[in-house]
């Protein structure tokens, strides 16, 4: 009897391992904000395939400031699931779908030798341009966690951390500075969690909330990953739509 039980236990272990391996694509082990490594997170993976000829990414539109640029000239989805951004020409990837309320989780990192500028735009609406009306979650090295309301996008926050200015090209810009510096050094992966619920949008880095904007424009819009002149990388980009 003991021998049979041991054999059964080995078989069950093998089956469990197989099931977990198959489930890896649907439930990537990307930790939630405030939780440790290995916590499985449900959500829809936003990067699944790329056209070998044009470089078009399934579910995404592409905009670049240089006419004739193909998505694959700037963005490459590698076999390991990492999305590499060359940085130039400037522009962005934008979801085909619109999102108002959602939880967006992703990881990003800069090359160890050259940190630079980048960001995530949410609730992007209006015409494509550099840069469109939206709320930006800043990824610029040393500034990750800041919010920027671009081209008149409205948001509010504590007066001591907010400022507004008018730019001749980019229109009205509103900045809400982060409360803490939580990004890892260049070359290491960082976790971003952006939660949009009505007029409140929160931003967490590596498990800690570092910004909370209120009075935000509540409009359906695209989610965008920007190319701002510098190489950087994304992985595990997943979304849970709705409240």
CATH superfamily: Exo-inulinase, domain 1
**CATH class (first level) name:** Mainly Beta
User: Cα-atom Rg, whole angstroms?
Assistant: 20 Å
**Separate helix tally:** 2
Globally, the shape reads globular
Biggest sheet layout: 8 strands, antiparallel
Order of helices and strands: HEEHEEEEEEEEEEEEEE
Strand content: 35-45%
| CATH T-level topology | Jelly Rolls
Tell me what the CATH architecture is.
Answer: Sandwich
**Class of secondary structure makeup:** mainly beta
Low-confidence stretches: 1-39
Overall pLDDT, averaged? 87
Describe this protein's structure.
- The chain has 243 residues and is mostly beta strands.
- 10% of the residues lie in helices and 37% in strands.
- It contains two helices and 16 strands.
- Strands 1, 3, 4, 6, 12, 13, 14 and 16 form an eight-stranded antiparallel β-sheet that branches. The chain has an eight-stranded antiparallel β-sheet with strand order 2-5-15-7-8-9-11-10, with no helix packed on it.
- The N and C termini lie far apart (52 Å).
- The N terminus is likely disordered.
Quick tags:
single chain; 243 residues; mainly beta; Jelly Rolls; eight-stranded antiparallel beta sheet; 16 strands
